[in-house]
Amino acid sequence: MIKFDIDRHKIKTLGAGAAAGLAAGILITFLGAYCVISEDRLAAAAKEEQLTQENEQLAEELKKERAVQENTETLAGDEDGWQLILVNEDHPLDSSYEPEKLTEISPGYEVDNRIVSDLRQMLDDGAAEGLSMYVTSAYRSYEQQTQTFNASMQNRLNQKMTPLEAYQETSMSVALPGTSEHATGLAVDIISTEYAALDDRQGDTEEQKWLMEHCWEYGFILRYPPEKSDITGIIYEPWHYRYVGKDAAKEITEQGITLEEYLGQ
Ligand SMILES: [Zn+2]
Fold it and tell me: Which of 36, 126, 175, 243 is most exposed, with the fewest beta carbons within 10 Å of its own?
């Protein structure tokens, strides 16, 4: 009996072991199958995600391409629309774009001929008020913009920033080539003779105060106002003025909005 019991016990143990083994086997098989299924699902999801991303990227590129074409056509056209062209990171300008007629506003600085008289008037009226200011940047070609961008980035690299930091900081203050308004010939940087630095304090000079108050009368807007960087993608630039025409300049200034907001972008 004892032996039997032992045997039974053995059998029981064996049985339990076999059952456990079987259960474990099933579990492993099940888990294995589950893994295969979920791997398939994961792969499918990843593929779908990739396709979605690719589609979005493609749509984004197409949108940009269309914007580039539209921008080039708008600028080249003679209708009033040219003055409302939007150039930013999402609306680049074709790298080969060149204003049809450039006119020198001061030695070495040219702008689109269509804004010359208003710009001259603004500078002359400012001077008549006893202010002293000058244009420090006007039309910049794609190549010049590339050089400006690279120089600014190099400057930051020299300050021991990592390439990524340097790139991020630079792109907040210097437009990527193709996305700069200076390539349109419709934008100018004007600074005070008293204070030459391109920083926030430029905005405190009498010259900038006057320009900010009166530029709309000449068809210009302060293009990158403070607290609008999230919309424009560019930091506060109290020296960068953009020609948009007198009607738009008045409305944009009165409403305290950006060109992006004005155009519903
Ligand atoms: Zn500028």
Answer: 36
Q: What is the Å distance from ligand 1's center to 163 Cα?
A: 24
Domain ranges of the chain: 1-76, 83-262
What are residue 94's phi and psi, to 5 degrees?
-55, 135
Q: State whether CATH 2.60.20.10 applies to domain 83-262.
A: no
Inter-helix orientation angle 116-128/206-214, to 10°? 130
d(CA 237, CA 7): 92
Question: What token pair was written down for 134?
Answer: 């000058």
Report, in this order, helix, strand and coil percent for the chain, each rounded to 5: 60, 10, 25
**Active site positions, annotated:** 237
Structure ipTM? 0.99
**In angstroms, what is the span from residue 41 Cα to ligand 1's centroid?**
51
Whole-number pLDDT of residue 22 = 37
d(C-alpha 197, C-alpha 238), whole Å: 11
Could you read off the pLDDT of 55-78 as tens digits, one per residue? 777 777 777 777 777 777 777 666
Distance in Å, CA 187 to ligand 1 centroid: 6
Amino acid letter for position 99: P
